[in-house]
Structure formats: C-alpha cells, structure tokens
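W.,

You were right to be curious about this one. When I first looked at the sequence I had no strong expectations either way, so I just let the prediction run and decided to look at it fresh. Below is the sequence, 179 residues in total, followed by the output.
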Amino acid sequence: MTTELARACAALCRGSNFFAAWLWSSDTDAVRAPSLTSEHRSKVIANGLRELDRFLNILIDEVSLGHSLPARPGQRNTANKLRNLRDALGLPHEDHERLLALGRSRECLFHCGGMVSRGDNRQARALTLGWSKGEGAGRALTRVPVGSAIVVSRADIESVCHFYRKLAEDLASPFGLLP
C-alpha cells in the first residue's frame, strides 16, 4: 500500500463526512446558510458532489497503481473509470448506473439551478437522480419528470455520502486499508 493510496482513501472519506455534516444545520432539514437562494443552494450542493466525484476519481487511479494497472488521470468520467478498473480486476460493477445518475444530477443542479431540463437521454421524460427515497438495498433511484425541480434533502446527501464512503472501503479493503 502506498502513502498516496492511503491519502486518496482518507480524502474521499473525510470529504464525504464533511459534506454530509457541513451543509445542514444540526437539528433540521434546513440548509446551514439560510440566505442561499435556491439557485445558489443548487450550486453549493453540485460543487460538493463534484468534489466527491473528483476524490473518487483520484482514488481509482491510486487503486489501479496498487494493482499494477495503469492509472488514467486524464479520464474524467469517474463511472466509466471505475467500471474499467473493476473489469480489469474481474469484479462486478453494480454501482455504475448510480454514478452516472449522480453525474447527471450534479450537472443539472449546477447548470440548470436544479430544474430538470432534460431526461436521462433524448427520449426520456425524467431524470434519474443519484439517490433513492428511503434507505435499504434494492431501492430504485428517484426519478424526476422534466420540468420539475430537484429537491435535495438531508437524507439524500447522507445517502450519497454513505455511498461514496462504501466505495472507498470496497476499493481500499484489498490493501488492508479501511477508513
């Protein structure tokens, strides 16, 4: 295990913990900074999601190097990058669709102020978000119709942050590194 791998894993876990705790006031579902307009709130959430994605992207490179596989720092699509790593290692990649949905959700929050202007593809009438309502394995990801606003709750962010921490654990566990 390299120091860089340990740092990358710790960065993703710390980032997830920070994002889950920072954005919300301690006792409500309200955003910590009530002066944020909904457009700015969307950008703040999108930036947090972008940071988590970037931390995961870096971790994937370090895990690749740890398995004597080439790192691909120029590959920006984290969902595809993780799928490629898992394919090279002969591992399943059930979370690919969720990572793609998180990317689409993030872009909609950032560029459209959280208003769904298009679906998952050209023909789709809804956007699949990177989280589901409620907890538990097997729950379908939330879908929001085109023309609707994305409403992000505290539970949604906590679910996403838990997902990223779980990815860090899964990727780092072969190296005896558990965050």
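Here's what jumped out at me. Helices lie at 3-22, 38-66, 78-89, 96-111, 154-172. And, maybe more interesting for your project: Residues 128 and 143 are 4 Å apart (CA to CA).

Coffee later to discuss?

I.
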